[in-house]
Amino acid sequence: MSTSPNVPTTELPLPSDAGDWHRSLADAVRDPDQLVNLLALPEKYRDPARAAAELFPLLVTRSFLARIERGNPRDPLLLQVLPLADEMAKSPGDVNDALAEAESHLAPGLLQKYAGRALMIATGACAVHCRYCFRRHYPYGEEPRRLEEWEPAFEAIASDASLREILLSGGDPLMLTDQRLARLIARLDGISHLRRLRIHSRLPIVLPDRITLEFIHLLKECRLTPIMVVHANHPREIAADCAEALRTLVDSGITVLNQAVLLRGVNDSVEVLAGLCERLVNLGVIPYYLHQLDRVAGTAHFEVPEVEGAVLIEELRCRLPGYAVPQYVREVPSAAYKTPLA
After folding, report:
1. Residue 284 Rama label (left phi>0; alpha psi -120 to 50; beta)
2. Which of 88, 121, 143 is the C-terminal boundary of a domain?
3. What is the rounded distance in angstroms from the CA atom of residue 33 to the CA atom of residue 44?
4. Distance between CA atoms of 98 and 88, rounded to whole angstroms?
5. Please, are residues 216 and 254 in contact by the beta-carbon 8 Å criterion?
């Protein structure tokens, strides 16, 4: 199914104190019945949404909801957050850990997949539960929470002089308060062989008021070069407060990249992908990766065949300048780098 990047939306009211990201997060929708009611969805979606949310809870911010067309159960933004009966179907090859991350641990909360960089699971919390999430089954409860629990990870990083870059991931690292984030970053800043700090976050897209001047100051005063990797899949996500947050990051001098996932019914058309890439580059955000879906249990209905993805990339190359075309890749467990697919 292809979708148009220009479908009109009906805006829902944002909370009156939307400038406070903590309050915006508290006002997020977590109840499937509330989601169905707010978006005037057909009644037949209510029971499947309840059932699928028992397996993987619903969570979506009001800011993101405001960009969804009411009454349209096939809205490409809605499909990313609405629990569906498809998630309960069993498909051949489905696993809970598609990237074999359990085999990549250097220390509690610290993973290394590629040379020169390592990844910290900073928190298991998110501001949105994307239904295609490759970590929807991740055992977050086994990872560190308090700063002192991170000591083995800091020691492992400090003992490996080949590491140049640390990625903060999750969950979503921007779910941490600035105070907690500052303490974590300060410890990394003190490890002399580190040069870069990369933060992977969906919050600039779904909870844009998290991007505050205080947060930017925190990154700018760090010795490590900051890189923000955001996650948007459809051009209609890049609007209003989201576009403002991205522009704020770019104008501050921070490198901002976007990674997307190729998703059936969401962005599996050249018109949508081209619209996404152009909106990003117009804001100064670099389209970085287009990921082939990581097939974890409950996500098979989103999968687009690789041959279709390769055709889409070729069409993008014909339409856009090279810097606006993302790399189409698949992450393969134990591979030395992400595998190019086109």
Report:
1. left
2. 88
3. 12
4. 17
5. yes
Looking at residue 152, its amino acid is: P
The full length of the chain comes to: 342
Instruction: Enumerate residue ranges in the chain where pLDDT < 70.
Output: 1-19
Residues 76 and 160 in one domain: no
Determine the 3-state secondary structure of 117 from DSSP.
strand
CATH (domain of 289): 3.20.20.70
Closest C-alpha among 187, 151, 138, 165 to residue 255: 165
Under 8 Å CB-to-CB from 281, ≥6 apart: which residues?
Answer: 287, 323, 324
Residue 10 lies in a domain: no
As a three-state string, the secondary structure of 123-180 is ECCCCCCCCCCCCCCCCHHHCCCCHHHHHHHHHHHHCCCCCCEEEEEECCHHHCCHHH
3-state helix, strand, coil in the chain (%, to 5): 40, 15, 45
Supply 165's token pair: 């870059």
Question: How do strand 117-123 and strand 110-111 relate by DSSP bridges?
Answer: antiparallel
The dihedrals phi and psi of 181, each to the nearest 5 degrees, come to -65, -40
Do 113 and 239 belong to one domain? yes
Question: If DSSP codes are grouped into helix, strand and coil, which group holds residue 70?
Answer: coil
In-domain check, residue 95: no
Alpha carbon distance 77, 202 (integer Å)? 14
Place of tokens 């598609």: 98
Residue 69 sits in the same domain as residue 112: no
Say how many domains are in the chain.
2
Asked if residue 205 lies in contact with residue 211, where contact means CB atoms within 8 angstroms, the answer is no
Residue type, 137: H
Beta partners for residue 169, in sequence order: 121
8-state DSSP, 5: T
pLDDT, one tens digit per residue, over 52-68 is: 999 999 999 999 999 99
List the structure tokens of 3: 């979708």
Query: Of 88, 122, 146, at which residue does a domain stop?
Result: 88
Angle of CA points 70, 76, 82, to nearest 5°: 70
* Confidence (pTM): 0.92
